[in-house]
Structures are given as C-alpha cells and as structure tokens.
Amino acid sequence: MRYQRWLMVITLWTVPAAFCCPDICKCSIKSASVKAEVDCHKRGLRVFPSNLPSDAWILKLGENGITDLKANTLGTIPKVESINLERNAVKSIHPQAFSGAKQLMLLNLYGNHITKLPSRGFKDLLNLRFLMLGQNQISVLKPDMFAGMRNLSDLDLPLNALTILSSNTFKPLIALKVLDLSLNRIQRISPKAFTGLRQLLFLNLDNNSLRTIPAGTFRPLVSLEMLVLDNNFLSTLSSSTLNGLRNLQELYLRNNELEHLPPDVFSNMARLSQLALSGNRLKLVDGNMFAHMPELKKLHLYNNPWHCDCNIMSLVQWIEWTKTTWSSRETLKCSSPADLRGKSFSSLRPGKLLCPV
Asked: Span of the secretion signal (predicted)?
C-alpha cells in the first residue's frame, strides 16, 4: 500500500506512567519528540474516543463501530498527522468535525457508510495529502466539498455510487496527483469536470458505465501520465476525445465496445509507451497509426473480432517490423471472412487477402 512506507518511519518506546491514554486503547510515544501513537484498532468503540494524548500524531481507529464524527472531534489533538477510520460505520460528518487539524496529512475513511460529504468540511485540512473515501455510498461530488484542500495529492473514491461528474468538481484540488474513481456507476462526465487538475498524473475510471466521453474532457490534464478506461461501454473515440494528453504514457481501453478508431485518434501522444485495446469489437485498425508513436513499447490487441481482408495488411506489416512488445501473433486471429476464421495474423499473406468490392 502506497501509504505504508510513510508510516514505517515510526519507532515506538514505552509510555511514561503519567501519559494520558484511553483505557481501551494502547498508546506509545516517539521519545525524541514526545509524539504519541494511539492504537484503538478493533476495540469495539461506538463513539470517537475522548481523553486522547494532546501530542497524538497517529490515531488508529480501524474496524470499530463509530457512526458519527461530531463538531470539533479533533479539537484536543491539534498535532495529529494520520487518522485511520477504515471499516467503521460512519454515516455523518459534521462540517466542523476536522476543525483545527492543520497538521493532518492522512485521513482514511475507507469502508464506511458515508452518503454525502459536508460542504467545506475539509477546509481546515491545509496539509492533507492522502484522503481515502473508497467503499462508501457517496453519490454526488461538488466543488465546495473539497474547498481549502490545496495540498491534497491523492484522492481515492472507488466503490461508491457516483453516476455523474459535474463541471469544476475537483477544481479546488490544484496539487492533486492521483484520482481513483474506479468501480462506481459513472455514466456522464461534464467536459469541464477535470478543470484545475493540471498536476494530475494518474486517473482511474475503470469499471464504470461510460458510453461516450465529450470532446475536450481530458484537455485540462496536461501532466497526465496514466489513464485507465478499462471495463466501460465505450463504442467510439473521436479524434478530439483524447485532446490535451500530450504527456500520456499509458492508456488502457480494455474490455469496452470499441468498433472503430480514427487514424489520428492517438496522433498527439508522442510519449505513449503502453496501449491496451484488447477485448473490444475492433475489426480493422490502420497499422500506420502506431508508426507515429516512437515511444510505444507494449501494445495489446487480442480478443477483437478481426476482419482479415486486404485492409488489415497495414497492421500485419507493422507488427512484422515493429520492436514493440505485444501479445504473441498467435493470439491475433481472424474472425472473418469464413474461410480465414481462426487463422493467425502470422499466416496472412498480402496476395491471399481479398479487397472489398
């Protein structure tokens, strides 16, 4: 897990006898700075614990039954830097729940029952870097929910109930590097949904319900290096769908319903090194579109219903001479016409392929 290395720097010592700690929890300190780690993991808690050490910097509250985060929940622990509340039963978060927690860097709310984020509820978390909200029931995102989070670098929202990404949803998150929206029900994305995310490097939209993506949707993502669109219902990509992704290095479009790719659909992606198009409905692809990708190292084309007539030869010939790593030619087989069904690309010869009349 990408947060573990950050947490592994903690070294623990025996707690002084006078050290304040909830009876049900276990506390220890880092002697050099007298910073306290409070471990209340899986202790049957129903409410957020009180009587916490004032110097608490790591708070472990995972797998309890906490249902509400009330106003000023963190008022007595202003130095806290990491809070783990995963797999509780949190339903409501007061807009002032995190008031004053200006040193908090990691907040884990994965696996709770949150349906709505409070307006401006994170505005005091000026140093928050990681926010995990996966496996909740959040159905709507609005810009005011992320107000003040100018240093957030990683936002995880998989396994929620999102259906629409509206304009300017993430605009306050000017430092965001990683955005995970996988395993939701997203059907529609506003062309301005990603406005402001100029630092974003990784965007995951895997396992949603996207059928189309408006032109220019990704244009604000000038730094994006990896885009995952696997397991959606995309049937087409226009020449302008991927506009603006000039720094993209990895693009995953597996298991969609793509039937056609415009010859210039990847024309502005000179840095693309990995492209996955397997599991679609492609019958024909112009091999010349890949010839303009000097950095392409890996290409996945298997599990498509290839139609092997003379128009497939540009792809077959490109495969012959390219140094790109891709699935074995034996996995690329013709689905039609009938007399070539099951034939591998490696057995195709130009003179044997008919041209459409």
From this structure: 1-20
Instruction: Answer for the pair 327, 277: CB distance below 8 angstroms, yes or no.
Output: no
Q: What is the pLDDT of residue 328?
A: 57
- Phi, psi (degrees; rounded to nearest 5) at 140: -135, 140
Q: Would you list the DSSP string of 107-173?
A: EE-TTS----PPTTTTTT-TT--EEE--SS------GGGGTT-TT--EEE--SS---EE-TTTTTT-
The Cα–Cα gap between 135 and 180 comes to: 12
What distance lies between CA 192 and its chain's CA centroid? 18
Which tokens in the block code for residue 325?
A: 């790593």
Cβ atoms of residues 296 and 273 within 8 Å: yes
pLDDT at 19 over 70: no
Alpha-helix runs per DSSP H in 171-312: 288-291
pLDDT at 7 over 70: no
> pLDDT tens digits for 125-175?
999 999 999 999 999 999 999 999 999 999 999 999 999 999 999 999 999
The closest alpha carbon to 47, from 72, 74, 70, belongs to 70
Alpha-carbon distance of 176 to 192, in angstroms, equals: 16
The pTM of the full predicted model, rounded to 2 decimals, is 0.91
Beta strands in the chain (DSSP E): 26-30, 35-39, 56-60, 68-69, 82-84, 92-93, 106-108, 130-132, 154-156, 164-165, 178-180, 188-189, 202-204, 226-228, 250-252, 274-276, 298-300, 306-307, 325-326, 334-336
CA atoms of 276 and 301, how far apart (whole Å):
7
What pLDDT is attached to residue 12?
37
* 61: nearest Cα among 109, 119, 122, 10: 109
Q: What SS3 state is found at 268?
A: coil
- Widest Cα–Cα separation across the chain: 90
Distances (CA, A) of 27 to 37, 65, 220: 6, 20, 45
